[in-house]
Amino acid sequence: MKPVVLTIAGSDSGAGAGIQSDLKTLHNHGVYGVTVITALTSQNTKGVQSSFEVPAKIIKSQLKSLFDDFNIRTAKTGMLSSSKVIDVIYSVLMEKKNLKLIIDPVLYSKNQFVMLDKTGIKSLINKLLPLSFLLRLISVKLKYYPALSLILLKTWSLPVRYCMIMAQKIF
What we know:
CATH class: Alpha Beta
Distance between the termini: 40 Å
Order of helices and strands: EHEEHEHEHEHHE
CATH topology: UDP-N-acetylmuramoyl-L-alanine:D-glutamate ligase
Radius of gyration: 15 Å
Shape: globular
Strand order of the largest sheet: 3-2-1-4-5-6-7
Helix content: 25-40%
Largest sheet: 7 strands, mixed
Number of helices: 6
CATH superfamily: Ribokinase
CATH architecture: 3-Layer(aba) Sandwich
């Protein structure tokens, strides 16, 4: 069987990002993608118009269902939408000792729709970042949250041995 990778993210109705994009990428790399949907968005190529957060108990149920059936060794996060969502994800993932977690934070959309507020960013930093294997940041994300880069660097004084930033310059 192909390796199984879990993507935990929002659903993009325009299919250019989120769960839909992750599944295409996973398929193109020969792995089997499973999903936990954290939010439903109304979006297109112009940006995000609205977002609806999936209730925490449904997110937890999705996670437990997948971990009960699949041998998931790698997981990737995208849009997490709030500290409530992050808390429930953390409560499940903290028990998964051999999981390689990739954090790809979605903070806002290209039309500046807020995808994760400041409370959510703090939860991401305090809870999921210490569990992470890899942190993927695009420089455009830091342009709007310059304090985030400093907080992340300070956070890495914790024993997060395998974390690294992959910054991509976007022109």
